[in-house]
Every structure is written in structure tokens, then in C-alpha cells.
Design goal:
The chain is elongated. Helix content is about 55%, strand content about 10%. The strands form three sheets. The protein has a six-stranded mixed beta sheet, sandwiched between helices. A three-stranded antiparallel beta sheet has the order 6-8-7. The longest helix has 18 residues, at about 160-180. The protein folds into two domains: about 5-195, Serine Threonine Protein Phosphatase 5, Tetratricopeptide repeat (Alpha Horseshoe); about 200-325, Arc Repressor Mutant, subunit A, CATH 1.10.10. Helix 4 (about 45-60) runs antiparallel to helix 5, helix 7 (about 105-120) packs antiparallel against helix 8 and helix 10 (about 160-180) runs antiparallel to helix 11 (about 180-195). The chain is α+β, with helices and mostly antiparallel strands. It contains 18 helices and eleven strands. The protein has helices at about 5-15, 15-25, 30-40, 45-60, 65-80, 90-100, 105-120, 125-135, 140-160, 160-180, 180-195, 215-220, 245-260, 265-275, 280-300, 335-340, 345-355, 360-370; strands at about 200-205, 205-210, 225-230, 235, 240, 265, 300-305, 310-315, 320-325, 375, 385.
């Protein structure tokens, strides 16, 4: 490694992106291309970064497997930050194996963290945990330790283990400060702030108030009968009845939960579940059928009884019935929830994460854009979506190329 490449690598490791570019901007050899690609990614020009890294991988040649693997990992991180979740995972697996075989533990671990973060984004929590379990952060440099702790915190948040999430974020903050990388420190701080933001709304007896994540965790651990509109399920004391695939039944359950202990008129239930304007005989017959289905599903936890006006929910053991709703009710709330991370998403990545068709997601994005809630950047296949208040972000720390000798 010549002196300019060494100096550029040190500058990148210290977060001095422009200093690194000044040293290699006019060079076209493989190491310089790789460093320029990483620097452009740090500046947010992901398209140019991918092009440079792809050229670098080709220029390194078949005999320089280690350098090629590092380029693949850098491309994978750019894909992750760009929310291109369909990026071929097998290439990252192969690159990780190559890095481990050549003794590059830091970048092999970084590849593992990227795998875990992708799995976390698409909701494959078990696979993410298994990937993370195979990584020991203790011998890694501080930047890798921070990345590891961030993934641990993300998993803890998804599992509603708030105390573990806060401990992991505190560890990530210490490691990020030790690394001395401002972008990484900012990422940890942003995650910590998000943990202190309202995570849901509690609707109880006609009143509603915001809940922090700790309060959501405590509520679900209590004996309350919870109609969970965040995950479309009915819960009580560890038992759950999933209704995500039964939107009509969940709409009925939510209406009953919001009105409890009072009953709900048939006209209201028809409007909520079927969007009918008038509860005529055909709608009433359909309502009876759907209520029978809901009654059978909720039988272990509650009864659903017909009244003169409509129907009422009667939990078997719970003293209270509450509805746990998203912080903001919106027809396309799930799309907004993913965009709330501040990153720019492609419609295909959102479709993968939501388990929906790309056309469904595109219609949702068009509706949200018309309402002024989201905006797009880029064109055609490079188009990315973000919330209207967000600004384009930057990549987390890229550990490529390896630290110069002597560091």
C-alpha cells in the first residue's frame, strides 16, 4: 500500500472524507477506486459509489480475493443504506467467508452485522438473532462494537425488551465515541432519541394518550385485554389471537374495544368493517356471520354478545379493555412507519419489508405524496421515498479498506 493510499485510508477511518478524496481523486488504480467509492458513499452519492466499487472489484482481479471481498461488503452496505433489500445475500455470504478465511476479522464481522441488519429490516428476527449469535464483538475495533450493539438494540426494540435496548444503545454510544467517527455517534444518538419518542397511543374508555415503549411493554405484560392495532392482534397475559390476515374481523374487534364497556351499534360496525353507508338486511346478515367468526377466534379470551343495539365485548378475566393504536392513525400507516427511520426507501424494498405487492406499495406512496406526507428523490429505478420532513442520510461507518499497517 503506497503512502497516498495509506493516508487516504487513515483520513476515511477518522471521518475526513474530503481529505481522503483529495489524495486519490485523480487516480484510477483499484485501491484508489475503492477508497473513492467509500468516500462518495459517505457523501451520499450512492449511485457513483456503487459504480466506483464495482470498477474496483473488477480491477483487483481474481488473485486479489480479499480486496474483492471488501468491495462486495462495501457495495452491500450501500445497498442496505439505500434500502435495496433485494441485494443478493449469497454474494455477501461468500465475501464474509473469504474475509474470515484471510483473517480479516473486523470486516468479516461487519459483513455479519450487515446481514443481521437486513434481516431485521425485513422482519426475520429469528434469523437476525442467529446471525448475531455467531459474532463475538469483544476483539473487534470500537466501530464494529458500536455496529454490533446497534443491531442488538434493534432486536431488543422489536422484541419489546426496552431495558436491554437502552443498555445496548449505551454500549453503542461508548464504542462510537471511542471510534471517534461523528457519523456513527450521530446514528447512535438518533436511535436513542427514537427510543424516547411516543411508540403508540392508548385508547381506553373514550380517552387516549401517548405511550413510550416502556409503557407498551408494561401494558402487554399486564393482565389487560389489549386490542393491538399496531400488530393487528388481540392479546392478554401472553396469549395472542393474530388477526393480521383478517382485516374485517380486526376492524370489528377494534370497534368493540374502543367502545368497551358499552356496546356498539350495528350501523357503526357496518361502517367500520364494511364501509357501508346503511345497515340494510344484507349487511346485517354479513355482520352476523363475521361476528360469529370473531366470537370463535376470541373464545379463549372473551365473549362477543349481541345486544338490542348491536354487540358488546365481554372479556373472561381482564378487568380492563384497551386499544393500542399507532402514534398516528393513517390508512397507509405501515408504509409511514418504515419511512420514519429517516432513510430513503425504494418501493420494491418497502414491498419486501411489508410482505405486500410492489403495486400496492406504489399506490400507497402516491396517495401519501398527494397528501404531502412523503416525497421522492431520483428518477425511474433510482427513485427513493422518504417522509416529507426527512433529509437524505449518510451511510454508517464503512470499514473498508482495512486499517493501514501499524494501526
Amino acid at each position: 500500500m503506497d503512502s497516498l493510499i495509506t493516508a487516504a485510508a487513515r483520513a476515511l477511518a477518522a471521518g475526513d472524507v474530503l481529505g481522503a478524496l483529495n489524495r486519490v481523486a485523480l487516480r484510477g488504480d483499484a485501491p484508489a477506486l475503492a477508497l473513492r467509492g467509500i468516500a462518495m458513499a459517505r457523501l451520499g452519492d450512492f449511485a457513483r459509489a456503487k459504480e466506483l466499487l464495482h470498477r474496483a472489484a473488477r480491477a483487483f482481479g481474481a488473485k486479489e480475493a480479499l480486496a474483492r471481498a471488501r468491495c462486495v461488503v462495501a457495495e452491500a452496505e450501500i445497498a442496505l443504506v439505500s434500502r435495496e433489500l433485494g441485494w443478493p445475500a449469497k454474494e455477501l455470504d461468500a465475501a464474509r467467508a473469504t474475509l474470515a478465511a484471510h483473517g480479516d476479522k473486523a470486516n468479516a464481522a461487519h459483513a455479519g452485522h450487515l446481514q443481521a441488519r437486513r434481516l431485521l429490516l425485513v422482519g426475520q428476527l429469528g434469523d437476525a438473532e442467529r446471525t448475531l449469535a455467531g459474532l463475538d464483538p469483544s476483539p473487534l475495533p470500537p466501530a464494529s462494537q458500536a455496529a454490533h450493539a446497534l443491531v442488538v438494540a434493534g432486536l431488543a426494540v422489536r422484541r419489546l425488551h426496552t431495558r436491554a435496548a437502552r443498555a445496548a444503545l449505551a454500549e453503542a454510544g461508548r464504542a462510537a465515541r471511542d471510534a471517534g467517527i461523528p457519523a456513527l455517534v450521530a446514528e447512535v444518538e438518533s436511535a436513542s432519541l427514537a427510543l424516547d419518542a411516543p411508540a403508540a397511543r392508548l385508547i381506553e374508555r373514550g380517552q387516549e394518550r401517548p405511550l413510550l415503549l416502556e409503557e407498551v411493554e408494561a401494558l402487554l405484560a399486564s393482565g389487560a385485554f389489549v386490542v393491538d392495532a399496531c400488530r393487528n392482534a388481540v392479546r392478554q397475559a401472553g396469549a395472542a389471537v393474530p388477526l393480521a390476515s383478517r382485516p374485517v374481523l380486526f376492524a370489528l374487534a377494534r370497534a368493540l374495544g374502543e367502545a368497551w364497556p358499552a356496546d356498539v351499534a350495528r350501523e357503526t360496525l357496518v361502517a367500520r368493517a364494511f364501509r357501508g353507508k346503511q345497515a340494510d338486511e344484507s349487511y346485517r346478515a354479513r355482520l352476523r356471520v363475521e361476528m360469529g367468526r370473531l366470537r370463535n377466534l376470541l373464545k379463549p379470551l372473551a365473549g362477543v354478545t349481541a345486544t338490542r343495539q348491536g354487540f358488546v365485548l365481554e372479556p373472561h378475566r381482564a378487568a380492563e379493555v384497551v386499544v393500542l393504536a399507532p402514534p398516528v392513525d393513517d390508512e397507509h400507516g405501515e408504509v409511514l412507519a418504515f419511512l420514519a427511520d429517516g432513510e430513503s426507501w425504494s418501493s420494491s424494498a418497502l414491498a419486501l419489508a411489508l410482505g405486500a405487492s410492489q403495486r400496492t406499495v406504489q399506490r400507497a406512496l402516491e396517495s401519501l405524496e398527494a397528501a404531502g406526507k412523503v416525497q421522492w428523490v431520483g428518477h425511474a429505478r433510482a427513485r427513493r421515498w422518504m417522509t416529507a420532513q426527512a433529509v437524505p442520510g449518510f451511510t454508517t461507518t464503512l470499514l473498508l479498506p482495512a486499517s493501514p499497517p501499524g494501526e
